[in-house]
Specification:
By secondary structure, this protein is α/β, with parallel strands linked by helices. Helix content is 35%, strand content 20%.
């Protein structure tokens, strides 16, 4: 069972991530570490597209891929690019509470109705779209998903350090996830 670790001081960061770009990310965001100048990205952040999340980090500090639920399954070429061309050796995956990709079926009517009303789709087009794609993007529990996605990426990229993190939209802080 994974658990969240509140980060209010440097020593709250799990030892395996201390003094890494993952630690710096948390220090900038949670601990108000003064910004440094970066000419090159230090890590890749995979996080949800949700509009309620904003990271407090310096310019040029990271690549950021924003996708529903921090699901990088369909962004692997971009991940590979950040690693191979960008020289990235660390990935921070950030899930969050109240994620819209959790329990997508509960939003099915709203999703379909929104496409019909807002996008001009037919009901049949909207239903087919939801039915085809919702299973690919449903993440279940946000914490469990980000941990499983971190494990999957560790297998795919064995030399890369991947840390599952959690963003609490209620306090706008990053939490470590103890696996």
């Amino acid at each position: 069972m994974s658990q969240l670790i509140k980060i209010i001081k440097f020593n709250d960061i799990l030892p395996e991530y201390q003094n890494t770009p993952i630690s710096l990310l948390i220090e900038f965001h949670n601990l108000n570490r003064p910004y440094a100048d970066y000419q090159q990205a230090q890590l890749l952040v995979g996080m949800c597209m949700d509009h309620r999340k904003h990271l407090h980090i310096p310019e040029n500090f990271s690549y950021i891929i924003r996708t529903g639920g921090a699901n990088l399954r369909y962004s692997e070429f971009k991940v590979s690019y950040a690693i191979s061309v960008g020289g990235i050796k660390h990935i921070a995956l950030i899930g969050h509470n109240n994620c819209g990709m959790v329990n997508l079926n509960s939003k099915k009517e709203q999703f379909i109705g929104g496409l019909v009303k807002q996008a001009g789709w037919t009901m049949d087009q909207a239903v087919e779209h939801f039915n085809n794609f919702a299973p690919m993007f449903e993440i279940g529990n946000a914490i469990d998903f980000v941990v499983s996605e971190a494990k999957r990426l560790r297998v795919k990229y064995p030399k890369i350090i991947v840390a599952p993190l959690f963003y609490n939209v209620d306090d706008n802080k990053l939490y470590m996830i103890e696996e």
